[in-house]
Every structure is written in C-alpha cells, then in structure tokens.
Amino acid sequence: MKIAMLSTFYPYRGGIAQFNARLYNELSKSHDVRAYTFSRQYPSLLFPGKTQYVVDAKDAEKVNAVRILDSVNPFSYWKTGKTIKTWNPDVLFLRYWHPFFAPSLGTVAKMLKKDVKVITLVDNAVPHEDKAIYKPFTHYFTKQSDGFVAMSKIVENDLRRLAPKVPCLLKQHPLYNHFGEKKDKIKMLKKYSLATNKKTLLFFGFIREYKGLDILIEAFAKLNDNYQLIIAGESYTDFSKYQYLINKNPNKERIVLLNRYIADEEVASLFSCADVCVQPYRSATQSGITAVSYHFDVPMIVTNVGGLKEDVRHEKTGLIVEEINATAIVDAIVYYFNENKRETFQKGIRELKKELSWKAFCEELLEFISNLKK
C-alpha cells in the first residue's frame, strides 16, 4: 500500500511531530510511505513559543519529509495536492489538531479525495479555546475525510456529532519509546539541585491555561517539607500569574522551574527524578504526556476531564481526581505516597505497555483503512 502522510515532521518540534515520526517508521516496515510537511507551519506572529523548530537535532527523529505546504498560502495548497496526487498514493493520512489548519489540509484532502482514501487522526475536533469563528473551518475540514482516528472518547463523540456518517476508529495513544531508558535517580536529582530524600512531583509539557499549573502550585503550598516539585515546559501563555504564585509560595525553595522547551534528550532525566507525574487539567482531549510517563514507569495523578480518565486506570496505573481544585490534588498526592501506591501502579503500567505498542496501533489502523469503502 502507498501511504502519503501530510502533517508536521522534523525540523518542526513537539509531541505531534514526534508521534508522526514514530507512526511513519512503523508503517514503513510493511508499506511504501512518503512524508510531506509544512514549508511554513505557523507565521511567526501567531506562534506562542520561542521557536517552532528543533534546536538540537542530535536526538530528534529525522524523517525525510518534503517541505511543501505553506499554511497561509493558498497557491501552496494546490501545489501540495498536485505533488501528492502525482505519486498516486492509496491513502492520504492527515493529522488535525486546530482549525487554523483546516483551509490548508482540508483543501489538499478535497483535491485527492475522489481517488484516495483520506484518513485523519484528530487530536482536537473542538479546540480548547472554542470560538465561533472556528466552526466553519472545522465543518469544512471534517467533510473531506473518509475516516477518522480518535485517541479519546471525547474526541470520538465530537466527531460523531460533527460528521455522523464518517467511520471513526477509537484507539488509545501508543507509548513513546524514543526517549531512551531511565537514568540513575540520585544522579538526576542532584543534576537539578533536588534533595535525594524527598517525594518528587513532576508537571511536564507546554504550559497553557487549561492545564491547571496554577492549581498544582497552590496545592504544593499546602504540602509539608517532604515534597518537592519540578515544573518543566515552555509557557504558551502569560507566565506572570504562575510566577506570582511561585514567588508567594511558602515552599518555593523546593520548586525547580524549567520554563523552556524540553528537548528530547532531557526527557529521560526529568522523568527519572519523578515519583509521580501530576496533570491537574481543567479540560482535555487526550495527552501525549501520559504516553511519555508510562514509558518511564511513572504513575499519574490526573483530573477527571476528557481523555485523561481513559488513559489512566484508576488505582491501577494512577489516580483520577474528581474535583478540579488544590485541595483535591493535595488529597490525591498525600494518599498516593501514604499508601505506597508507586510500586503497585508501576506493575499496572508494565502490564498496560503490552497493549500500547506502535505495532498494535498500526495493525488496527491498517485494518480500519482496508475496511473503508470509497
């Protein structure tokens, strides 16, 4: 089968590019796959971080993708569609995570849909920052796919509402396996000037309003001096309110703040420090952070929102907190450590890993594609 993948790849950074590279590598083992990506992904003025690109490429997964699609240049939409069509693929595989990309990706899909099966893996059918202006973009895009893939029930439900006649495969996010192995915990704690005899909490990933970092900082203020917190990730919002909460926090001396993009080669170091990863989200679809955390056998404490509650199996691989507030987060953290849940949850994670391989993900994806009728 000839599969054209159009999405974000190296040299662009981030979890979606990493996922796409893993998927590309697995599919390439048994099929002819070509990758196409953006010549311009976001205009600089619209990108919330410092850079869209991989800074240190030594550990990045480099996929030889054709850089052709300019997200804001309609002439490139036509050029991209024509280029892919010339290769004559059986399948066009897209990745959709924000309505900003609906015109570019949707137009290419529309050009090829007559002759090619168009499959879209959807991260967010409805964006976290839901605005009325996004609705026509989403409506336009969802009309162009022959099949969807969702990695959480909330996204599947949104897709069934937006495009009820389009088949949808629900499959949990496979585990990332390209960050290497865990490192010596004591050495890594010392690397970040952390105590070696305290309980270490980790907040990891891009910082956005919906991810509830402020809730975790407030919760940390209520914990005793047996705890320490790592905040690791670049802020995609105004960080001043978080800095204010840190500055007035009575436990601020035990907070390590890494407000920057975390390169792939550093991920293992941070998760090797962690006793538990905390995601106090206000809303969510699914999170690639869970897949990273499980790779390193680090249990999760998450709020009961979106797909987080599907990825974390309560009292088996982590804890699901019903209320989204600092007190509930504190209660879960204290319970986790007082009841010595780490080893039990790590055992559950190791069992879950067997189900969440890239091979298993791709086998179901390919079966789904083969059963689709044009």
UniProtKB/TrEMBL annotation:
Keyword Transferase among UniProt keywords: yes
Matches recorded under SUPFAM superfamilies: UDP-Glycosyltransferase/glycogen phosphorylase
GO biological process, one term: lipopolysaccharide biosynthetic process
Record GO terms (molecular function): glycosyltransferase activity
Domain Glycosyltransferase subfamily 4-like N-terminal, first and last residues per copy: 14-161
Keywords, comma-separated and alphabetical: Transferase
InterPro entries: Glyco_trans_1 (IPR001296), Glyco_trans_4-like_N (IPR028098)
Domain Glycosyl transferase family span(s) in chain numbering: 187-347
Entries under Pfam families matching the protein: Glyco_transf_4, Glycos_transf_1
PANTHER family given in the database record: GLYCOSYLTRANSFERASE WBBK-RELATED (PTHR46401)
The protein, known as: Glycosyltransferase involved in cell wall biosynthesis
Species whose genome carries this gene: Balneicella halophila
